[in-house]
Structures are given as C-alpha cells and as structure tokens.
Amino acid sequence: MKRTKVIDALQRTDYGTDITVMGWVRSKRGSKGIFFIALNDGSTIKNVQVVGDEANFDAELLKQITTGACLRIDGTLVESPAAGQASEVQAKSIQVFGPCGSDYPMQKKGQTFEYMRQHAHMRLRTNTFGAVMRIRHNMAMAIHTYFHQHGYFYFHTPLITASDAEGAGQMFQVTTKNLYDLKKNEEGHIIYDDDFFGKMTSLTVSGQLEGELGATALGAIYTFGPTFRAENSNTPRHLAEFWMIEPEVAFIDLDDLMDLEEDFIKFCVRWALDNCKDDLEFLNKMVDKGLIERLEGVLKQDFVRLSYTEGIQILQDALKSGKKQFEFPCNWGDDLASEHERYLVEEHFQKPVIMTHYPKAIKAFYMKIDEENPVFDGKEMAQTVQGTDVLFPQIGEIIGGSVREESYDKLLGEIQERNIPIKDMWWYLDTRRFGSCPHGGFGLGFERLILFVTGMQNIRDVIPFPRTPRNAEF
Ligand code: 4AD
Ligand code: MG
Known about the structure:
This protein is an alpha+beta fold. The protein is about 30% helix and about 25% strand.
C-alpha cells in the first residue's frame, strides 16, 4: 500500500500531484455540500485536512465517516486556503477500512484522564497520548544517543534474579511451582529445590549490581530496561513496572558523578525541545501552560549541590519560621518525602537540586561510606554515604545514585549488618576481591523523566499500559 504519511503530506508543496493518505478520523464537518475531514495517522500531532464535494460520493459511504473511523483517501494534493496549514487533500475516492460506532470510548473531546485510564487500550488514539508516546520514543533515542556518544556500552542485565539489589524486599517472585500444593520443610519454609531455577527467584528491582560487573570490565556501561517493584504505593509517582536507565562507570568520584547526572539530564531535556516541538507546543497549550518555560529553565540553571544535612536545616528553618507546614516529619535521619523535596526545589531554590551525604541508615548497602563527613545526629556521630539524589520540580526524586563502596571488608560489613544472605552476593563481592576500583552510577526513572518533559501529572499517563496495585489490565 503506497501512501504518504501525514507528517510528510503536510510538508509537500508539489500541488496537483496524486496523493494517498490513510488514518483515523479526528472530526468531520460539512458546509454547503462540501465535507471536511481532519485525518490523523499518528506520525504527528497535526491532522491533514481532506476536502470533498458530497455530491461526488455515495451517501451511505459518507455516513460511515465518523470520529474514530479508519480511512484510505486517494486524491490530489492542493494548496490549502485555510489558515495554519499549507496543503490539504482534495478527495477523489474514499475507502472505509474500519467504521467506528458511536460507542467508541474516545468519541468525546475533553474526557478526564481517569476516564481515559479505564480505556487505556484506546486512549493512545487521542492527541494527548499520541504526543506523550512520541515524546517517550524520542527520550529513549536521546538516552541511547547520549551514552553511545560518550563511550558507554549498552549492557543487558537479567530481569529474573536471585538477589534483591535495593534490599527493600519489594520483589515479585518468579516460580513455576504449583501454588496450590507448596512443599515446605520442617521449619515451614517453602522448598525451592524442585522449582524451575532450583532456588527462589524474582523480577529485578534494579540492574545495578550486574551493571557493576559490566562497568568493572568495560569501563562504562548503561542499562535501559524494565524493573519491577511490589511497593504498595498508590501515588502519582510510582509504578509496579517501570523502566530504568542505569549507567555505571569505573574511575569516577562523587563530583564526576554529579557532573554526569546534570549533563545527561540536560541533554535529554534539550533533545526534547529540539526534536518534539509540535508535541510540546500542544501539551503546553492543553495540559500545562508552564511546560516549555520550565524545560528551558532547567537548561539555563546550574543545579544546586547540597548535603542532606543542609537540606534538613532548610526544611526545619521553614517549619520554625512558620513559612511551611509538612505532613511528614523531617528530622535528621528521616527519609525525605516528596513534599520536602519539592519544597526545596520549587520554593526554596527554584531550581533542581542534587542532594548528597545521606545518613547511612536510610540508604542501600552498596553506597560508599564517607569517612570524612560523619554528622552528629543528636545522640552520636552518625555515618553518611556518598549517595546522590537528583530532585526536580513537579517530580521530586528523578535520579538516585551513588559512589559504590569499593572496599571488600567494608562492603562485607554492610552486607552482614543488614542480614543480606551472602549466598546471593558472592559474585558481587568478587568485584571487590579481584581488582576492585573506585566506581559509581545512578538510576533514572524513565517515566519520571517523561512526566517532567510532558508536564503530565500522573505517572500512569506516561506509560502505555501502567501496572499499579490492583491494576494489570490489558
Ligand atoms: O533510587 P532508586 O531505588 O535507585 C536504584 O534502584 C539504584 N540501583 C540506581 C543506581 O544507582 N543504579 O531508583 C532509581 C530511580 C528513582 O530515582 C526514580 O526515578 C525511579 O528509579 N523509581 C521509580 N519510578 C517509578 N515507579 C517506582 N516505583 C520507582 N521506584 C524508583
Ligand atoms: Mg531512591
């Protein structure tokens, strides 16, 4: 089927030539015996206008041209008298590939996002979701381009794993066992010897630990794949299945890591502004009037680099002066909530923040202990780690990363202190036994980046098929 994509048809100026376009009807109207169809094929947010004389077409066929119907139009490319478009198609013949009844769920304009989530299989055909999905694709291209240009190797880490990288116990188990007839040992523990892998396995929460094996061989790698977390958080920022980008690099320190985080994320935002102009303009008009200004703002500013301890001080000062109320506590040692992160970024600094030197107790076992920066926590000197979270306006945490503990003894100590089973970690510890090196990396939540770049408010609306607690439809 030879056809011209709508994105190309709108560029063409060879008026008078034959053209074939195919797509779905966004709207149809008529005036004085002339019909006008706005046709969209997903290649761009823009529609091509198809014009025809009703008298030249079968009345039954014209009746089938309703919102959502799929058409093939053969006609002539002509210069458009209408404002806002250079060309349009004068229809000579129309074929209805698929008519669309009045029960089409995306019929009406201006449906709520909640309504569209319930019809997520059809919402992709709307302008907003088309724009979001095209931007999502472009951001994936930006990420691969950035790392390829900077000498990182795309490295594939397993989705099925026996280790809990983040140690948070939020894993989905993978088994072929008959759940109706589980064999247990005398202590009541399930016996996995006869399971597919002969041991307990789960879906990965992060490719980092295997990524470190890659980085300590290839120098610099990145992963880009799905990750799974069974955290029961029903928030607009959490998914049970999300995509994560995890670069891991040998021979970098904390400052290098922060430079990488900032450079990388600015590259992605610039890419969106350069490559997704039409879609961003649409979202800026329809979803979030401050979007493009916010994206440009991020490029102009240096990110603030701030220790956790300084951050807590700012939050407590805001509380004491009565400037701000928070729902959750923010004493030294507490994990920051999204409201704290957003206060720092949106109100106090009004720019992105890279926060460092977190208390050891609230971060993962692999983060490098910062011997130089212990902090008095009210009772004793508490250790901090070289972790870095990048905090963004509208989002809160968009990146989590760290310099890794490279000392075998210290790492083993952390593993033991947290009761992480050594039998799952021997291979990871081997990186520190054989030619250990200073290294670090981070994880960017892909959907959180897409939230920021599109101005959408709910993470369920930036992935085609969201997985959240009690929701695995489609
Ligand atoms: O901060 P996290 O848990 O860090 C890690 O997994 C490290 N292993 C990364 C690394 O150093 N290689 O997760 C990283 C990012 C978060 O900053 C957030 O953007 C995103 O992943 N994220 C989620 N996104 C959507 N839904 C969830 N449930 C998420 N949990 C984390
Ligand atoms: Mg984190």
